[in-house]
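[User] Once you have settled down, look closely at the record that follows, and write a paragraph about the fold.
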Amino acid sequence: MPPHHPLFGHIPLSASIIGSFPSYAHGNYLPDQIRQRYPHLDSAFYLDTWPFGPPVLAVVSPDMMYQFTQDRNLPKDKGMRHFLKPLTGKQDLVTLEGPIWKRWRAIFNPGFSANHIMTLVPGMVEDVTVFRDILQTHAEKGDMFCLEEASLNLTIDIIGKVVMDHKFNSQTTYNDMTSALRNQLSWCTYGIEINPLEYINIIRPMIHWNNTRRMNRYISRELDNRYNSIQESAKSKSVIDLALKAYQAEDTANKSAATMDATFKDFALSQVKLFIFAGHDTTSAGAVFVYHLLSKHPSALTRLRAEHDSVFGTDLSTTASCLSSDPYLLNQLHYTLAVIKEALRLFPAVSAPRGGQPDFFLSDAEGRQYPTEHCLVWGNHFGVHHNPRHWPQVEEFLPERWLVAEGDPLYPTKNAWRPFERGPRNCVGQELALVEIKVMLALTIREFDIVNAYDEWDLLKGNPKGMNVNGERAYMIIRGGGHPADFYPCKVNLALKAKA
C-alpha cells in the first residue's frame, strides 16, 4: 500500500491528491493518481480512511476485477444502497442480492434485449431529431451553450419512451418528474464524506421527501395508464409492458385484474426511477465525451464521417428515414462503435464498489493474497482503463485498438474494458446506451462541428487558469456518474458537408 501516516492513515495522501484537483473533480480519479505516484501499485492496494469510512481495497487490475465480479460475485457495497435509496426507494436491481435479484432481473431482461432495442430505434430517431434541431439553432446563433444540458434532456426523453412509452418532452418543455429526479440526484451521498457537515445536513431529508413525493406521484399515474393500455392492446413493447407480461405469466391469477398488481407496481416504481436515472445519466455523459474526443482528433472524425456516408448515403436529409426503416444499419457502424468504446475507456462513468467477505481473498499476478473482510472493495474502472500495464499507449485515443485482430499489440487485454461492468451484475441497459449514442452520431456528426469553449467559459466565470485533471479540461465531475466539467460549454458550427 502507499505510505501510511501513523495517526491519520491515508487521509493526508488522499487529501493532498484531491486538493490538487479542481473543485468537484470525481473521486474515481484517486486510485489512478496514487498509481501514478507509486507505479508499483498497479494491481491493488489498501487505503486506510478511518474515521471517515472502512478500509478500502482499491483494485486497478482486470484479472483481480474478474475475481470478485465474475468468478465470485461479491455483494454490492452498502454505500450503493445509501446513494440510491433517495432515488429508487425500497429496492432496485442494482442493490438487490440473491434469488430476489435473479427473479426480477429475469423479468426485466426482455425489455433490454438487443433485438428488442432495435424495434425502439424509430422512437429514438424522433427524439434525436429534436436534439439535432437544437444544435442547428445554436449553430445559427453562434452562441456558447452547454452541450450536456441538451444531451441530458435528450437521453431522458429517450429512456422515458423506452421504459414506459411515455413522452417527457424534456427537450422542449418543463417536466416535474425529471426536474425532481435531477434535483434529487444532486442531494444524494454515498455515506463516506470528508466534510463532517454532510452528516448533519438537516435540509437533505426534507428535500429527499419532497422530490420522492413528486416522482412517485408522476410515475404511479403513468404506470396506471400503461396498465390500461396493455389491457387494450397486444402491441405494447416498453420495458415495463414486457416486464408486466413476464410477471403475469408467473401469476396468472392477476392477469385480468382491473388494476396493476400492488407487488409489481411497488417494484416497478423503483425500477422506473432507476432506469430513468441510470439510462440518461451515464449515456448522456458518454455521448458528450465522444463528441469531445472527435473534435480533438480530426482524422478519427473524418474516418467516422466516411463510414456514415458509406452506410447511410451522402444525402444527409435521408439519414433519419433510413434508420427508421432499417435500424439494423447501425450494426454496420464498426468504426463508430470503436470510437464509442474508446471514449468509454478513457472516460468510464462509474466504478464497482463491493462488500468484502470473511472467506474471500484476491490474488495478484505475483501470487500475493489480499483479504477483503471488512473492506470496501473498490473496483475502479478509471484505474483499470488507464493502467499502462494492460493498455499500450494508454492515454492516447486509439479507436483502432478495437478493430485489430488478437495478437496485435493493441488488442485489448481480456476483461480490461468494463464501463458497464462484467459478469452477472453487468449493466442491463448497456446495449441501449450504445445504440442511443450511435443514433445521436448518425443524425448529427456529419452536419455539425462541435468544439469546446472552455477558454471563453473560464474567462466569463473568472475561473483560474490550468483547471484540469491529467491535462484534460473536460475532466469528470461528481454528479451521479462521471460527467464533463461545467456541462461541457461549447460552440457548434455547420460542417462543410452540411453547408454544401
Summary: The first strand starts at residue 44 and ends at 47. The radius of gyration is 23 Å.
